[in-house]
Amino acid sequence: MGRKNILFIMCDQLRFDYLGCSGHPSIKTPNIDSLAARGVRFSNAYCQSPICGPSRMSAYTGRYVSSHGSSSNFAPLRVGEKNIGHYLNPLGVRTILVGKTHMVADKEGMQRLGVDPKSDIGVHHAQAGFEAYERDDGVHPDSMVNPELAYNKYLKSKGYTEDDNPWHWAANSVDTERGVRSGFFNDRVGLPARVSDENSETPYITRRAIDFLSEDDGEAPWLLHLSFIKPHWPYVAPAPYNNMYSVNDIIPAIKSESELKNTNQLMKHFMDRVAGKTFGKEATRETVIPVYMGLISQIDDQLGILFDFMDKNGLLENTLIVFTSDHGDYLGDHWMGDKDYFHNPAVKIPLIIVDPSEAANRTRGSVDTSLVELIDLIPTFVEFAGGATADHILDGRSLMKKILGAEHDWRNYVISEYDYSTQVFRPETGRTPLNCRSYMIANENWKYIFAPGYPPVLFDLIGDPDELNDLGRSPEYTDIRRLMFNQLAEWSLQYRQRETWSEEHNIHMTGMEEQLGVLIGYWDEKSAEGKNPKILPKRKPLKATRTD
What we know:
Elements: E1 5-12, H1 30-38, E2 40-42, E3 45-46, H2 52-61, H3 65-68, H4 84-88, E4 94-99, H5 107-113, H6 120-126, E5 131-135, H7 150-157, H8 166-171, E6 173-176, E7 179-182, H9 201-215, E8 222-231, H10 265-271, H11 274-279, H12 282-312, E9 319-325, H13 344-347, E10 348-349, E11 351-354, E12 366-368, E13 372-373, H14 377-384, H15 400-404, E14 414-419, H16 426-429, E15 437-442, E16 446-450, E17 457-460, H17 478-492, H18 503-509, H19 512-515
Parallel strand pairs: 1-8, 1-9, 2-12, 3-13, 4-5, 4-8
Antiparallel strand pairs: 2-11, 3-10, 6-7, 9-11, 14-15, 15-16, 16-17
Helix pairs in contact: 9-12
């Protein structure tokens, strides 16, 4: 195969079930479906937190949120935390970014350790281990827009000069009979964006990825992280994608009136958010979901352009392709909007992996139902690139054996975590930020959600796959809740920070004190019979030295 490359495609807020290959009845995603036909689709993949920043930090470190510590959006990833570059760069693989990471640098930690933010180490940390060919974190409200944002400069060069922030007022707004309407309001998002398809975000980011591939010298292998901003809100699409779909293409909301009765109080806080109230209305879903679907089809079309370029340049034959998302979107399911809680629409993610090697032929077009986590990607990349995984640091497990069809032991549950301390309702809970933790553990049969201070939530994934009936307080399920809590406790009690001490080194150090001659608890020489004579105490007279 020669040089082995990796194309790591991540969408933002793309649900696992809004693809043709995952069963959506009307969405058009032929290029993504083609990936599934050429590779393995993992139908039970979960993110490590149903929110952008923490989920992505888990993807870029291979570790659970409890391990890397960046538990909220805008929470810095601590300096010294190993990232994707630390694992792949020593293997000779360049790690290139085009698009979003949501990475926030640990400025306090760098200052404390004397790391210059502009140094190679400082930049490497601030970019989560990527070479930022072009970074764009996607949401640029007027209050915090970067004046050097490359996409804004591009839009202005194309004539979108009416506003200082064309990302907002051109790409993510619409023209109405009453004037320009911001896409942060959802009532008119069915209208086309104020930019053309060509100048909208998804084609722009795709072209930047192609720019990198065009400039690549063909020498060093690379991982290209193409990180799309859409279909994350604002739900605004250019023509023709804004009206490609209609209300007839909307699948019914997964919700029940029973969910509004005797609701777990923490779950109710999420339902009562503005997004929950807005998307709880059918009129919102009928307006937004066709646009959401259009944004997905736009991504698919652009991937077709990218794959054609790669094919013409001989890149498909030596590139591992990964397609996934950082989390999902409720879209009104369970009376919620946005993401942030643990129902499947928010916490499950699409995951497709295409290995170009002949060794993967036996699994092409297959669906793997194993319990997979987003943290499994870095170990997979490392193994594909020919490296050894650092099991004492990485929480994830390589998927290469699954991709190649080899039998091996696998996990029997998945974990996701969420820190709700920055939610607008947090003061209502009476809880301090450090006490705003929540955890999900799910196996093939049950999903259990634990949040200190609240009753547990339990879903029967076999009898109630839509997760409509919370069994968290039902007496007849006490034993199941105890079993799930104990599994969660077992997971939480594992080593998380023993990063400097590998398993191999630990084995080497077993009994090391005696090997070094440190004898503890022996009574006399007889009790040390059979030991290596070299470790036993033996006087060594000082050699006389001449003084003349």
